[in-house]
Specification:
The complex is a heterodimer of chains A (138) and B (96).
Chain A lengths: L1 E4 L1 H14 L5 E7 L4 E9 L11 E3 L1 H14 L2 E10 L7 H6 L5 E8 L2 E10 L6 E7 L1
Parallel strand pairs in A: 1-3, 1-8, 5-6
Antiparallel strand pairs in A: 2-3, 2-5, 6-7, 7-8
Chain B lengths: L1 E4 L13 E4 L4 H11 L4 H4 L11 E4 L2 E2 L15 E5 L2 E3 L7
Parallel strand pairs in B: 1-5
Antiparallel strand pairs in B: 1-2, 3-4, 3-5
Classes of the chains: A alpha/beta (138), B alpha+beta (96).
């Protein structure tokens, strides 16, 4: 599977990950499916996790509802979620797998205090039992 | 006929529709009618005991149905019901 992410989207995800460090950041990915999945827009979401946000993120249901409304109103598709792993590799975790929804691209960035180390993306396999990595292009 | 808004990741289990109309007077009836129409939605919305999964949020308008009358929440013809998947996760490592 291939996932194209426009450069300005990637830059915005990196800025968000750095700004929220050492907490995890999260947000929504928008784009199109024509000719392969392309992410061309991004919107930040507050990390609504109660308590320590350095190793977990949660998106508030009201924010999710707004994200779907934004997609509907603007004629774009909500194609995924991004979040950061501060001081940790960009590998989907068991926590990520337990909460994962089908269809969505889950973009993860590994972030340190002074840099973003890597960006990878995963999609839940149809079995729901594991992720498949997407080949990310910008 | 209440209108159910289907979230993007579940649309492929609802005939690729973004909304589905359901004829029911209460939330529990509506959910089971929806699942009867689109059986593949069942495992995402209902637990093995056929109750609405605890991590699935369902809003009537802007309010979580659990803050209304739960599964007994009445629905009207103009009701707009949003199914909201839980979005959460995080990395595996222990804190330093």
């Amino acid at each position: 599977m291939k996932l194209r992410i426009q450069k300005q989207v990637m830059s915005e995800i990196f800025r968000h990950a750095m700004a929220d460090f050492p907490d995890e950041c999260c947000g929504f990915l928008y784009g199109t499916e024509e000719g392969g999945r392309l992410i061309h827009d991004v919107r930040r979401a507050p990390n609504a996790r109660q308590g320590d946000k350095r190793r977990r993120f949660t998106i508030d249901p009201a924010d999710y509802l707004q994200a779907e409304t934004f997609a509907r109103d603007n004629g774009v598709s909500l194609l995924g979620i991004y979040h950061s792993h501060p001081l940790h590799p960009a590998i989907a975790s068991e926590h990520d797998l337990k909460q994962a929804m089908p269809y969505f691209s889950y973009v993860i960035v590994s972030v340190f205090e002074d840099r973003v180390e890597e960006l990878r993306s995963f999609r839940l396999h149809d079995s729901g039992q594991h992720f498949e990595e997407e080949w990310v292009q910008s | 006929m209440a209108t159910f808004l289907i979230p993007t990741p579940l649309r492929k289990f609802a005939g690729n529709q973004s909304s589905v109309t359901v004829s029911a007077e209460r939330m529990d009836q509506a959910i089971h009618t929806l699942v009867a129409q689109h059986p593949d939605l069942g495992r995402h919305l209902l637990d093995p005991e056929r109750n609405i999964r605890s991590f699935v949020r369902i809003y009537v308008g802007d309010t979580d149905f659990r803050e209304l009358q739960g599964e007994q929440t009445p629905l009207a013809d103009h009701s707009v019901v949003s199914i909201i998947p839980a979005i959460a996760g995080g990395c595996e490592c222990n804190l330093p």
